[in-house]
């Protein structure tokens, strides 16, 4: 084969392929909304900081708070893998877990910012999860968190989680929280 035609064939081939790689975005087109569904979820969240097998652990805190002996002084970063159960009792049946972080972010009034992924392991939503990114004013017995997205059956989710503290140990920070979540999703 002649050298020139070989090179021009490569050129033709690469020209044919190159449009795929020439830009990182598609043409912007009008969005056609898909029918959405609404699902309500109800479960209990167990955040255990105490004992030999905690589900939530302190990762770091600023040393400026050394004289603060609350379980989560301002600046604390806590990583968690908390079980979610059907009822308030840990033995009532685990239906998933919340993984993520919270940051103690209230300087004057104790408050957290939650970065949680609630993943489900039972039933219809096994393998799906919802993402929560929100402030969490823990001193209020009833509060709400924003649901900002989801995976699996909860694709494109948005919604709100209503929380009620069911049990709190102010000494060690262990808490059980009741969640009612309303999610709009695909
Ligand atoms: C905190 O850490 C900084 C940097 O190591 C140090 O200079 C400071 O004295 C520490 N403060 C306290 C209250 O321990
Ligand atoms: C949940 O999904 C996982 C992964 O597909 C599977 O192994 C497991 O058996 C499922 N559990 C239930 C209770 O359906
Ligand atoms: C969740 O909804 C149920 C039924 O409406 C209600 O009894 C319960 O108090 C609610 N809990 C929260 C945390 O909103
Ligand atoms: C609260 O935590 C303290 C310290 O870990 C412990 O001594 C106490 O028994 C706990 N109280 C309850 C009701 O769990």
TrEMBL record:
Pfam family, one: Dirigent
Any one GO BP annotation for this protein: phenylpropanoid biosynthetic process
Source organism, top-level taxon: Eukaryota
InterPro entries: Allene_oxi_cyc_Dirigent, Dirigent
Alphabetic keyword roster: Apoplast, Secreted, Signal
Cleaved signal peptide residues: 1-22
Location in or out of the cell: Secreted, Extracellular space, Apoplast
Keyword match Secreted: yes
GO CC field: apoplast
Family statement: Belongs to the plant dirigent protein family.
Subunit structure: Homodimer.
Primary role: Dirigent proteins impart stereoselectivity on the phenoxy radical-coupling reaction, yielding optically active lignans from two molecules of coniferyl alcohol in the biosynthesis of lignans, flavonolignans, and alkaloids and thus plays a central role in plant secondary metabolism.
UniProt-recorded name of the protein: Dirigent protein
